[in-house]
Recover the amino acids of this structure.
């Protein structure tokens, strides 16, 4: 990736005059940060609307190996210029923050390149194929006094934040179990993962296609379990659909380990054989349970209710039924307003840019990133497989 | 004159007829076929030595220049018509970028670029105006529907290729292409959930039968080689002579295809409703609300506004006359005849 992109020496633009010197200050009176993007693929369409709209950001460059991709993205999102060469973009546009949005196997080289150029880096997940490589990159950033963050967007979705608030309120007591389950038709006709003509780059990762989602499972599991120390990990990796293209299409894993209050059991399940697509989370505690689904947003809280054991089921049904009906209305409005499953990302990015402007701690810390990478390693470890 | 013609999208609905037409007119075809695609429609021509296959995918330029080497002309049909913006952009725009870069590297100078009526700005002229190649094109792709936006970016690449030294390009814009297995079309009605809205009935959609279209595309390749001074840089719309009203077409294809039953909505009513939705979206949602395409004023104009479509330029420059009338085209579409073999023989 690096050598190819370095070999391509072409710059086009600018679409508008360099504005960093006169860019307006943000609402808090902070100077906008000069930001750039490497990779103008599908995921860039989630990052770029924020970078275009935020007064914390001055979008100075978009780089892609495809010239037309970089040029069109720069035009659509009002970037100062488009590039096909990363080194050239780093030199000419001098970004203070770079978003790495390329396929995972190219991340490490590009992250180092941007850090060497003195830019903070926000990297798409999975940052690297292993925890060891992730640690190296974080140390590389730390040595230079720069910040490196992996995208943990779902932690900042409305429903996950609501779920966390219920846990933190003590309403369900101490967390004992976390169940995370994703169903996604990755093998279906039209799936970008099932294209035999041009295999998706994610197939090169250790967990194959599941590596595209496993970072989400890991950081959600760690966050919602109260940072359990997973001592026992057992993971059944399967390729039920067979064939050469997919390494795995199914994961059924159990985790056991203590958090500050006692033992926690975790379950991570990925399937492409059940319908509809869903991303459900259930957290069970000593006093009750709370559940949601990121693809079908709602919040259900089952706890002891006034009236004792006799009336608790009825009151739970009434309370949660009312809440579910409200979710139906809200989800319709959100569908209309394109408030989709990725709505946590702009919230995360806003917090990130605020932290970079003010020197506060990042919303996703190096510890969060390393612990997620460690859990992924544990799930893939030979001794965990059964 | 015999050309070596490189055709992308060669196994598709239009592409297979273009391959047959080219072979039928004595050319050799290099048919680009994705690695996992079936070639059954073209196998007989390949066995006869009149077609060779270039297995590859335009998502990557790997090996593409080698396949293009020695070809005289490219007829570029491949495009992605479904999925989200990026799927369409990757399939249509990046694919074209890879193809044209490889053609340049291989020294292939002639391009028959297949554009679309969707790039025209239907709101710019009054209903029933003459609609020919002078009709205005959308000036800013942003904010248009995904198909039009990506095809506009693709057109930009076509023009850039044509402008390069030594290159020659002719751009064809076919209207609604119909044929076997594709007799119904969005220009005839709008899906709104389970309901089919039959918007307007008297407009005459710019239809063209697939075998007629295929002939125009091959004629364009020949004309570009034979009369470059006349053809290079031209935009040519392709519509048939006989353009029935939406209602007449629907009556004719009833029985041949499962015509969705629907509700008739006069065009002015639908246009007013869509304009109201657009105004509410701007006023209350800052334009962020996602409205189905059937509720967008420019989409309604593009699909249902009546115009007087003309094909004189295609006839004059290409010497093209649509071979099959509407009734003949529908009869061929409904028959069990092997239309590909029929054209080649």
């Amino acid at each position: 990736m690096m050598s190819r992109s370095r070999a391509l020496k072409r710059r086009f633009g600018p679409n508008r005059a360099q504005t960093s010197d006169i860019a307006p200050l943000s609402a808090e009176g902070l100077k906008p940060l000069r930001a750039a993007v490497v990779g103008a693929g599908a995921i860039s369409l989630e990052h770029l609307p924020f970078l275009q709209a935020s007064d914390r950001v001055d979008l100075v460059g978009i780089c892609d190996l495809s010239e037309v991709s970089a040029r069109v993205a720069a035009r659509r999102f009002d970037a100062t210029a488009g590039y096909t060469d990363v080194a050239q973009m780093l030199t000419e546009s001098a970004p203070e923050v770079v978003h790495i949005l390329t396929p995972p196997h190219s991340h490490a080289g590009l992250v180092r390149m941007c850090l060497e150029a003195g830019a903070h880096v926000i990297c798409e997940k999975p940052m690297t194929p292993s925890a060891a490589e992730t640690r190296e990159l974080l140390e590389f950033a730390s040595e230079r006094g720069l910040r490196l963050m992996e995208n943990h967007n779902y932690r900042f979705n409305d429903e996950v934040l609501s779920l966390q608030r219920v846990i933190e309120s003590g309403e369900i007591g101490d967390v004992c179990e976390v169940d995370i389950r994703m169903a996604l038709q990755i093998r279906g006709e039209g799936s970008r993962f099932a294209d035999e003509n041009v295999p998706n780059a994610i197939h090169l990762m250790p967990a194959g296609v599941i590596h595209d989602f496993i970072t989400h499972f890991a950081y959600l599991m760690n966050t919602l379990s109260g940072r359990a120390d997973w001592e026992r990990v057992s993971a059944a990796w399967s390729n039920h659909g067979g064939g050469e293209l997919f390494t795995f299409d199914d994961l059924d894993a159990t985790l056991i380990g203590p958090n500050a209050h006692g033992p926690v059991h975790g379950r991570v399940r990925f399937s492409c054989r059940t319908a509809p697509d869903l991303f459900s989370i259930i957290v069970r505690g000593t006093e009750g349970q709370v559940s949601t689904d990121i693809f079908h947003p709602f919040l259900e809280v089952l706890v002891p209710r006034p009236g004792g054991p006799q009336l608790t089921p009825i009151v739970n049904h009434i309370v949660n039924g009312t809440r579910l009906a409200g979710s139906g209305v809200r989800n319709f409005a959100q569908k209309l307003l394109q408030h989709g499953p990725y709505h946590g990302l702009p919230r995360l990015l806003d917090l990130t840019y605020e932290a970079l402007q003010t020197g506060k701690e990042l919303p996703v810390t190096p510890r969060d990133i390393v612990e997620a990478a460690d859990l992924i390693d544990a799930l893939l470890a030979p001794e965990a497989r059964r | 004159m015999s050309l070596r013609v490189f055709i992308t999208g060669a196994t598709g609905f239009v592409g297979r007829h273009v391959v047959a037409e080219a072979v039928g007119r004595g050319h050799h075809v290099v048919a680009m076929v994705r690695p996992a695609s079936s070639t059954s429609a073209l196998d007989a021509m390949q066995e006869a030595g009149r077609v060779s296959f270039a297995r590859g995918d335009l998502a990557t330029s790997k090996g593409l220049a080698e396949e293009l080497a020695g070809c005289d002309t490219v007829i570029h049909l491949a495009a992605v018509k479904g999925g989200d913006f990026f799927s369409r952009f990757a399939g249509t725009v990046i694919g074209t970028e890879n193809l044209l870069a490889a053609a340049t590297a291989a020294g292939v100078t002639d391009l028959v670029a297949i554009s679309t009526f969707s790039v025209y700005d239907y709101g710019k002229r009054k209903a029933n105006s003459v609609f020919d190649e002078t009709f205005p094109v959308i000036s800013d792709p942003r904010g248009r529907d995904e198909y039009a936006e990506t095809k506009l970016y693709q057109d930009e690449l076509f023009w850039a290729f044509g402008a390069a030294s030594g290159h020659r390009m002719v751009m064809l814009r076919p209207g609604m292409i119909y044929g076997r297995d594709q007799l119904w079309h969005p220009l005839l009605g709008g899906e709104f959930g389970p309901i089919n809205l039959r918007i307007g009935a008297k407009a005459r959609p710019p239809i063209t039968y697939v075998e007629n279209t295929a002939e125009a595309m091959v004629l364009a390749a020949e004309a570009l080689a034979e009369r470059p001074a006349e053809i290079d840089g031209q935009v040519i719309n392709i519509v048939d002579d006989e353009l029935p009203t939406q209602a007449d077409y629907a009556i004719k294809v009833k029985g041949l295809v499962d015509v969705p039953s629907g509700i008739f909505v006069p065009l002015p009513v639908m246009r007013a409703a869509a304009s109201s939705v657009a105004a509410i979206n701007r006023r209350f949602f800052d334009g962020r609300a996602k409205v189905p395409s059937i509720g967008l004023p420019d989409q309604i104009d593009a699909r249902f506004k009546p115009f007087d479509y003309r094909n004189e330029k295609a006839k004059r420059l290409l010497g093209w006359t649509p071979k099959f009338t509407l009734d003949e085209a529908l009869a061929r579409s409904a028959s069990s005849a092997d239309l590909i073999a029929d054209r080649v023989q």
User: Anything to note?
Assistant: The mean pLDDT of chain B is 91. Chain B touches chain A through 26 residues (CB under 8 Å). The CA atoms of residues 96 and 280 of chain B lie 38 Å apart.
